[in-house]
Amino acid sequence: MDVRITPTKLKGSVAIPPSKSLAHRAIICACLARGKSIISNVALSDDISATICCMRNLGAKIDIKDGILEIEGNADKISSNLQFDCKESGSTLRFILPIALALNEGNNTFVGKGKLGERPMKIYEEICKEQGVEYIDNSLANEKRLLDLSVKGELKSGEYHVNGGISSQFITGLLFALSLLKGDSKIVIEGELQSKGYLDLTFSALDKFGVDIVNDGYKVLNIKGGQSYKACDYYIEGDYSQSAFYEVAKYLGNDVTMLGLNADSLQGDKVIVDFVDRLRIADENEILTFDGSNCPDIIPVFALACCLRKGHTDIINISRLRIKECDRLSATAEELGKLGAKITQGEDSLSIDGIDRLSGGEVDSHNDHRMAMMLAIASTVSSGQITIAHAHSVSKSYPNFFDHFISLGGKVEYKLI
């Protein structure tokens, strides 16, 4: 689906979708707990639906009604040949693979679509090799490079050395699984930890469900074995990575009020508020530099804000944008450039000189949800219509984004392809 947007200012209130990151974690914890948990305020995006389907494969019972999940967990060992469809969700894949090795004595095959088969998995490959676990990855061998990964064997307790500079998702996946094993374990984080805020969300969720992790300065994580997840009720707060689109919209002169956010949230993407505030108070002769290493998901839309700020802005340490649903670093520079922005990319940076207004034109989301939503917000400061190719990609994280956009006064025409 393509969309054509006629420029107009947005005005009104919008309920921010629940946090996808917290929903993944709460659903997985509830599925590993004994008894019944109620997880409320859940948005059934493609990524969350993938996690639900995968945890059902591992024996959890999940009933869904009106954004509320009633979950009967299961942490018993099973022995089946299972296939897990992760769709395009890197979180689902990286969270559930070690859990599958902890619970299923049969073969575990992970499939997916889009760029998921090309996302880095070397950390798990090396762990499996060290532990004698069969690890077969045929993802790059098939014509479309789709995810096709199989693992079989038993995850063992012990000491794990994990590179913190790739993704905290590997650490989260291990934390979920190692607490289920009989022996004690330790995760030693090597190098600089990326996306520390996401690890804080994991600690918070595990604590809520009764699992104790001893965090020694984000360098060593001690996990006692044989722990039991405790069923509980959990409400998913609003998602700061989604609110970032409206935070930037406000900076660009739209009158939008955001509802459902937790001002005391642990979400790392909450930094979007501070980033935009810096833009507001900065002198146009001041060269601003922002470090995006701990908040990659908000960078495309934040780059849009920088393009309309008078003055020069650099966004650094963002090479991880290249291994998302698309190469977001390159795509951000390319698509905003089509609209007249003065933006250039480096190996791990964006360099931006502000302009007064964007032009209209045809742009491409690269089948990436965050690119599609960023380009929609860009229409509010464009001189002509913007046509966004593959705009249906918003379903990955925010299925009703364009419904909300229209409710705020956005003028959207749909074109099926």
Could you please describe the fold and organization of this structure?
The protein is of the alpha/beta class and 417 residues long. The protein has 12 helices and 24 strands. It has helices spanning 20-31, 46-57, 90-103, 122-131, 168-178, 196-208, 240-251, 271-281, 299-307, 328-338, 369-378, 401-407; strands at 2-6, 11-15, 33-34, 36-40, 61-65, 68-72, 82-85, 108-111, 134-137, 148-152, 159-163, 185-190, 213-216, 220-223, 229-230, 233-235, 255-259, 288-291, 312-316, 342-345, 350-353, 361-364, 386-389, 411-415. Strands 22-23-1-24 form a 4-stranded mixed sheet. α2 runs parallel beside α3 (90-103) and α9 packs parallel to α10. The mean pLDDT is 96.
Concise description?
With 417 residues, this protein is of the alpha/beta class. It has twelve helices and 24 strands.
% residues in beta strands: 15-25%
Oligomer: single chain
- Categorize the overall geometry: globular
What is the number of strand segments?
Answer: 24
User: What class, by secondary structure content?
Assistant: alpha/beta
In whole angstroms, how far apart are the ends? 5 Å
The average pLDDT score comes to 96
Helix content class:
25-40%
List segments where confidence is low: pLDDT < 50 over at least 5 consecutive residues.
none
Main sheet strand line-up: 22-23-1-24
Total helical elements: 12
Main pleated sheet: 4 strands, mixed
Whole-angstrom Rg: 21 Å
